[in-house]
Structure formats: structure tokens, C-alpha cells
Design a protein that fits this description.
This protein has 365 residues and is of the alpha/beta class. The chain has helices spanning 3-7, 10-13, 24-31, 52-57, 72-82, 94-106, 122-129, 147-152, 176-183, 196-199, 237-246, 254-265, 267-289, 313-322, 346-360, and strands at 39-40, 89-92, 112-115, 133-136, 158-164, 188-192, 213-218, 231-234, 294-296, 303-308, 325-326, 328-329, 338-342. A hairpin with a 6-residue loop joins strand 9 (294-296) and strand 10. The protein is globular, with a radius of gyration of 21 Å.
Length: 365
């Protein structure tokens, strides 16, 4: 081992890089398909992007000034959106920063974090960065939570439980009685509601009773500003205060702050695009119902997890990629025949259906 590696913290020497989605430049280079012809259905982004009112508002921003470290304006705007006091809200550079802050706040070395696989990989990644042990509880065959198993795995070292609802990549919602059972343990329960605007279902009402509940949300998906990286957490006053204490002082840049405020000013226009995406998701689900070798799992989000008989996740990914359509593949055993397809525009859905029809006719064998 070289001298520099010896100086690196032991648990960070072996951390595996988080595999995010490729940039368009990389996708084009790998596939040989021009950037303009790529169809990105691999990150649950909003293909419509943001609206002109948000784009135009970015002109004339005072880029030479630091943003407000207390986040007063953005927290007030979010508080009006969720109808809760702003002292219960903190904004972060995407939901990823919120997850990192939560673990910084609650985790000591060798503590335990629980997630329920398959699920969003950032929980596992952030836990490893915090030098905690990740305890992953498999979901059942319908991707529902195994609450008895989760509770049986709680020890005095368990500090945080992460639950996504709708869950990524399966798309299903958690059940309220299940969440209450977890909250009653007294462990910090982080409910990731990144896809709330698509599902229109939330556990926000439980905050008034449980001060160990943290709800995470995002502007990346529904609002079409993933590139500006803004998420937020809603929790008890004491948790929010401590999260504010430990965050980087200028974590929300001025462009992102402005975009969020204008997004909420014109949210009804953006909700029109949310409806369009959900309509396309339903159209794709309905088409798959008529397929012999492909099944999809019920989803309350802007994506569908699809299982292909006789094909590996890698093979299916390659088939779609050859047509310029990029989906999300997985290396987990339980998802070995699955890919996740994000909802797209009507034209993108047409192309996805075309590829599915070819697969059904075994044109790719």
C-alpha cells in the first residue's frame, strides 16, 4: 500500500463509486448515436424540462453574491407549498445532501442503518461513507415491506431506517400502518417522498405525532430542474435545527433558489406536465398488459419496473440502447431480468412500445 492510501480513512479506501446515470456525451460515445437522438429514460427526469417562466427568471441573478445561509426565502416558499412552518424545513443540494446530513447527525462509527431492497442506492452508499453498517431487508414478492423482519433486525445500534414511498425502482407505496409500526420503535424513520407529486400520497400528517419522522422530497423529478440539485426535508423543529447547524453555509446556490421560488409560483403549469407523464406511464403499462413475455409492476411514480422473460437485465438494456433508448439496469439478483423505464413524451413512448413489440416477436434473439 502506498503512503497516501495509508493515510486515507480505512472505510473510505474500499468504498465503491456510486454509479449514477451517464452524461449524454458518454451515452453518445458508447452507443455511436448522436446526442440529439438520445432518449433518456434512465433517471426519472422530466423530459419536458422546466417552464419558460423559470428559465427567464434566471436572467439577471446576482451571481457575484453568496446565497442566504439561513435559506429564509426558499424555506418560506416551501413552507407555503407544504402548509407547514418554515422552522420544520431545510433545503439541500438534492435529496442526496439531505440523506448525507441525516447520517452525519445521527450516526456514530459502527452504528446501523436499515434499508429495504431493492431501493434507492444512495441510502447504502451514504451509510458506507458514514462508516455505519447497512442492514438491507429484502422486500417480499410484491415488493411490499417485511415489517416483522425489519423490526426483528432493530438493535441498540440501529439509528436510522430509510423507506422510499413510492419506492424506487419498484414504484409501490408504503402502507400507513407499516410506517406507524416503525415510528413506534422510536428509531429515526426517513420517508423518501421524492415522487410525491406523481403519487399524490404523503405521510406528512404523521409529523404532528412523531418527532422521529423525517420526510425527504425533491424538485429534481416533477419540476424539471434536476441539474440545479434541490431537495428538502420536513421534520420536527429540533431535528431541523440541528440539520441547519451542520449543513454547509451556502449549500443552495442562487440560481437553484430562484428556480425553486419561481417553480412554486407557477406550480400549476408544471403539474400539467406531471399529468402528461403519468398519462404516458399508464399508456405504457396498458400496452405491457397485452404482452406475453413482459410484465410490469404497479407503479405510483413516473417510471415502471419491467420484467422480461428469457432476457437478462444487461441484454434488455443493450437492446433498448441500440435503438437510442437508455433505461436503468440492475445488477441485483432479485432484479436480474428487470429494467426500469421512466415515463417520457408521447413520441418517446411510441419508440419504447416499438422496441417492446420487437422483443415480443423475438426479433432480438
Amino acid at each position: 500500500m502506498d503512503n497516501i492510501s495509508k493515510k486515507i480513512r480505512k472505510h473510505l479506501r474500499i468504498v465503491k463509486t456510486y454509479e449514477g446515470v451517464d452524461s449524454n456525451t458518454n451515452l453518445s460515445k458508447k452507443s455511436g448515436i448522436p446526442t440529439k437522438n438520445l432518449i433518456r429514460l434512465n433517471a426519472n427526469e422530466n423530459p419536458y424540462g422546466t417552464i419558460s417562466e423559470v428559465k427567464n427568471s434566471l436572467q439577471g441573478i446576482a451571481l457575484h453574491e453568496y446565497p442566504d445561509p439561513e435559506q429564509k426565502t426558499i424555506r418560506k416558499a416551501i413552507s407555503e407549498y407544504v402548509n407547514l412552518p418554515d422552522n420544520l424545513i431545510i433545503a439541500g443540494a438534492g435529496g442526496d445532501e439531505i440523506i448525507d446530513l441525516i447520517l452525519r447527525l445521527f450516526i456514530n462509527e459502527k452504528d446501523e442503518v436499515i434499508d429495504c431492497i431493492p431501493t434507492f442506492g444512495m441510502y447504502n452508499f451514504a451509510a458506507k461513507l458514514s462508516n455505519s453498517s447497512i442492514v438491507s431487508i429484502p422486500r417480499n414478492n410484491n415488493w411490499e415491506l417485511d415489517i416483522k423482519k425489519i423490526i426483528s433486525k432493530i438493535t441498540d445500534k440501529t439509528k436510522v431506517i430509510f423507506i422510499a414511498s413510492p419506492n424506487n425502482p419498484t414504484g409501490n407505496l408504503a402502507q400507513e400502518d407499516q410506517i406507524i409500526d416503525l415510528l413506534e420503535t422510536g428509531i429515526i424513520v426517513c420517508l423518501d417522498e421524492t415522487y410525491f407529486e406523481f403519487s399524490n400520497f404523503s405521510f406528512l400528517h404523521l409529523l404532528s405525532k412523531y418527532n422521529n419522522l423525517i420526510i425527504i422530497r425533491s424538485f429534481s423529478k416533477w419540476a424539471g430542474i434536476a441539474g440545479l440539485r434541490v431537495g428538502y426535508a420536513i421534520s420536527s423543529e429540533i431535528i431541523t435545527k440541528h440539520l441547519m447547524d451542520i449543513k454547509q453555509p451556502y449549500n443552495i446556490n442562487v440560481a437553484a433558489e430562484n428556480a425553486v421560488i419561481q417553480t412554486l409560483n407557477y406550480k400549476d403549469k408544471l403539474f400539467e406536465n406531471v399529468k402528461k407523464l403519468m398519462d404516458e406511464k399508464i399508456r405504457l403499462e396498458e400496452h405491457i398488459k397485452g404482452c406475453q413475455n413482459i410484465t410490469s409492476f404497479p407503479s405510483q411514480a413516473n417510471f415502471i419496473l419491467c420484467k422480461f422473460s428469457g432476457f437478462s437485465s444487461e441484454k434488455i438494456y443493450d437492446i433498448f440502447a441500440a435503438e437510442g433508448i437508455f433505461t436503468r439496469k440492475f445488477d441485483q439478483k432479485m432484479l436480474e431480468n428487470c429494467i426500469r423505464i421512466s415515463a417520457g413524451t408521447p413520441e418517446q413512448t411510441d419508440k419504447v412500445i416499438s422496441v417492446i413489440n420487437k422483443i415480443e416477436k423475438s426479433n432480438y434473439i
